[in-house]
Structures
1.
Amino acid sequence: MSERRPRAAWRRHPEPPAADPSAQPPPVEPSVVQSTLYRDGRRVSSPATLADTFRQLREHPDGMAWIGLQRPTEEELHSLASEFDLHELAVEDALEAHQRPKLERYGDTLFVVLRAARYLDAPEEVDFGELHVFVGPDFLITVRHGDAPDLSAVRLRMEQNPDLLALGPEAVLYAILDTVVDGYVPVVAGVQNDIDEIETEVFGGDPAVSRRIYELSREMVEFQRATRPLVGMLHALMAGFAKYGTDEELQRYLRDVADHVTHTSERVDGFRQALADILTVNATLVTQQQNAEMRALAEAGFQQNEEIKKISAWAAILFAPTLVGTIYGMNFDHLPELHWTGGYPFAIGLMGIVCTGLYVVFKRRDWL
């Protein structure tokens, strides 16, 4: 990626004055996870403060500093920027999280932003972390925003392989890339299991499955934003092999990482499409269920209407004799036909005729 040069050849600021031996040593920075110096692929020391790291690296210009930070303060990043000549735009991005994955080159320094992911079994969700990496001729600085990835495993792996670590900061960058990409594998497996469960819930009629589909779809959008830019970033690094004289071993290493991230990106794209299809199927099933419920309600309403019509018809039939009987049951002395000999048969006959007529009418209209 770049030729290693003495620090004096590329640092643009003057050497700081020697430290006063009588002064008290500064406290360990709370955001410094680990600061280590390496020479020829082997650990030389682990300074307690950034100031000690800077001093020891000046004393051994052929060494390499690997500084790990987690949510550093603005003062700490600015001290690193002053010591290693980091670009102000890269420092600003490192201070502000929520950056998209990208690769930027500022002179002899590479600035890389990565989005790591891990699958949480208990809540069945994907947790994303953000990692910013500064890669220079003889230093590598990592700035983490989140718990992922676990860079201590990367450090241990590199220290167990001194030949690879001796290749410099570029080798550490590739190891970090490989760790981030390998961390996607359990996430892919967990998401695949979630999708299988969702398919079962969809056809089982679980009413809460729509929310789970939506939440997982949002996570896949974030996952896609983390993996898709990596493909272009790795191809950009591979395009610079010849220009920056990248070691052949690192070239093979990077090609393997590029293959893995391409496969992961394709799987994530497939997950997002599968969730969209499942959501469509679920909406169709919900609509069918709602239609069936509405049909059942309509049938129940129709049956109720039929019963109401029968009740209404019988009520009308029974109302006719009640009306006649009520009129002639009134206690008036001068009621017409009150003393008529044929009044009773006439009243009975009138009731029968009216009831029969109403019955025939209602029968023809299928009310009875």
2.
Amino acid sequence: MTGPLALLDSASLYFRSFYALPESMTAPDGTPVNAVRGFTDTVARILVDRRPARLVACLDADWRPKFRTDLLPSYKAHRVAEEIPEGSDVEEVPDTLTPQVPIILELLEAFGLATAEAAGYEADDVIGALAIREKNSPVEVITGDRDLFQLVRHEPTSTVVIYVGKGWNKAEILGPDELAEKYGIPAANAGPGYADMAALRGDPSDGLPGVAGIGEKTAAKLITQFGSLQELIEASTAGDSRVPLKTRLRLSDAADYLAVAPTVVRVAADAPVEQSRPDTVPSEPADPDKVAELAERWNLGRSVERLLAALPKP
């Protein structure tokens, strides 16, 4: 098999599987396995449809990193189930999803598929670090979240995002040209331009307030006009007549937020990624007996069969 490096936003994919499939999918002991089966089926579809030569399932070591919350305390604050003063806050996760995550990780290990994480960082940072460091293969980022659109680029290594927010059958493949057309930002700087636009616009789902009165279309127009968020801020501070007075006032009011937003929004490309194993997609499971045992114990039947069939032939 020859092909790209596939980087999976694992939590995004298993959360979406959990909500897309009924909890009536259970193991013999009654444990719901809808997220496990949906995630396993998604990996199989990725292998069949995209034919990656390498694949890494990227994980959150810390879903709400301290370096982000120190700058912006509202970051993902609405998702906190329990605050841990000297550690990682506990994310609000459905009770029936939590026990499925270790099963997913066991299955990935048994198949010999690589996982990766970085202490103190989110999966987005792991994906960003691996994508930006890649020098040999085109990169495909598979996610259901828009945050990673910032990684799209032509050079030096092509990176596209396969956005599965509406499921795999309605997946959008977004390169720089598609991102530019979708959001009205320049294709030549589509990824960084999206990150600047997102910081300006804000994102309530991540606790990013944005600049009051500036929505997505205005944000895109301003970033396109000035080239970057930093150049827009500098022009506004200097009283540039191209920045309307009302916009200058809005940017001034949000100065404290804008000072930290880029660091919060952008992936940390220097994240210290640790990978479980080499990322080559195996032609057979690393531990066939374990795969069979997991399939039987958790009633994963046809999902595991589909993933086995999707592995590249030697």
3.
Amino acid sequence: MNRILKTTVIAAAVMGVVGVAQARDQVRIVGSSTVYPFSSYVAEEFGATTDYPTPVIESTGSGGGARLFCNGVGEGTPDITNASRRMKASELERCIENGVTDVTEAFIGYDGIAFAQSNANDPMPVTRDQIFLAVAALVPVDGELVENPYTNWSEIDESLPDRQIVIVGPPTTSGTRDAFEELVLEAASENYSEAYGGEAYSDVRTDGAWVDGGENDNLIVQRLTQDTTAFGIFGFSFLEENSDALIGSTIDGVEAGPETIASGEYPVARSMFFYIKNQHADEVPAMYEYAEMFMSEQMIGDLGYLKGIGLIPAAEQARAEAREAVANRVTLDVSDLH
């Protein structure tokens, strides 16, 4: 059964009906669509093997999850938020301003960002530079910055097919979008540093070549099976799960895979996390038990269940340190995020 269909998602409005002031058994989780499948797997296992109900999970994107999580303590705010990039210092500062002063960071492993298309096409290797020129709102042409003029891939590089540029990607609230902008757009813009005044550039074009695919990566996958001209940007785990229908592009000559992502050889790899609101511990006793199950070797280890659905495990020492941080309820400080 598809892992996404196995977990019930309850809308954010429902989360606000009952506050955390009264003790409750059900953990409430928001955040990253990329971490969502892993969190969902743990949630189902937790519901099946403990006396607590299955946690409620809403896929809001990393940024959207951080906003909900940092709205305050109690009053129906989430207990945990998932993130496919590290929490930003500005997000934690907002948490603290709203009274969320005791947050623990849980590092769970790695994922890569895939650049993929329907397997009805031939493979199309790309570089970060080529992706940048296809996606950026302003690009250098003859030494001047102009609105992106490229409509076909072959206009960027004659080695690429004469095929319309259509890229379906995540919205600005997504951690995948944040990582894509940093690891692809900003990195490639360094090749044109003078044109951009020495600043990193990551603005995405809005003329239709880039299509906002929403927070649910499965919808991007579905779009690619319907539109074989399009490319999609989403977590590697979704490419693995849909390998019967999609093919990924090598990026800078490197194929996305567990080994290349874990080693950092694949240039578009990122870390994944969830964040725990320790101030909810008394009212939500299941929260820590869920977190400890998530951090267990059974889940995130080299032979863990989550590896089977696309998680790239961290090194043993890194896993041990992350597990210890959760067990000791280490409070995240703004200085840790700079």
4.
Amino acid sequence: MNKSFQPQRRTVLKRIFQYSALGLFTLLSPFAGSLVQTTQALPNAKVINLAYQSSGDLVKSKKAVEPRFQALGVTVNWVGPFAAGPQLIAALNKGEVDIGNVGETPPIFDQAARPGIIPEVVYLTGRTPSDGSNQGIVVKANSPIKKVADLKGKKIAFQVGSNAQYLLAKALKEVGLKVSDIQVVALTPPQARDAFIQNKADAWVGSDPLLAAVEKDIPIRILRNAARINTLGGFYIGRRGFITQNPQLVRVFLEEAQKVGEQAEKNPSDYAKILVDEQKLDPSVAQKVASRRTYKLRRLTPAIIAEQQSVADFYFQERIIPVKIDVKQAILAPLVYKAILPDNIK
């Protein structure tokens, strides 16, 4: 046997054992219930590493979780800003981050990149979907490109492996095209915006707050927004080892994140003010971003999991990912969700 393969084999076997143990953990419900309670009373971690993206994070801005964790003797370490979901997930896999939130695409690409290995990145909760107006395929107002079908052969800038790719692929599919029919300009979201503004790309797939700022600054035309495409809203995700070993900490985080979301939904201008203060956005831009964003979390129902599987299947059918994946491999045991999900998430 090739010796260089042995560490990887041990890692795979270890993860399979951990995953199998979760199944056993679920079956032994009376014993497991007491074990969860014990674990909740005695969190293993003394530090929790929370990820945030360059688009901003309301939980971080409000310092919503720090008091609860301080009472438990746990230090909060915010890690970032990450340019987008793929970069955040890379940090999760390296053990640099414990919890973060991303769109529907990054976990799928991560799972497809590691076929046959139980994913370390797991789904915690869903996020309420938006109406799709906060994301779009954009061209300059004076561009000869008038509709999505005109994108054939054109340079399009976007973050590969993000929900921008899903919007683009689905929009192209609607008009009989594939991603292979366009020229991909693979950049981070800020770089993609800059390439578009500097005429280094014919079109850009952007989202708020970058999209709202560009809408104000230069004349553009949105060929297609994410309405009826961006239906999932994204997910909170976490590192499997951390989640299963520290259910109490995860529950505390999600409870406070949901409280922040409920408050922001009632008063989006509060979030707009944070965008003005922290990201130096124009107040009118910040107000637009706040009005187009959704805030609350939702439990992972069978329907949501099935819809995420349909996204993964679409990527495989379009030959965007190399293997067909089973999303449920990144779903935790029911008893673990019972331990980590607070009552205020429905």
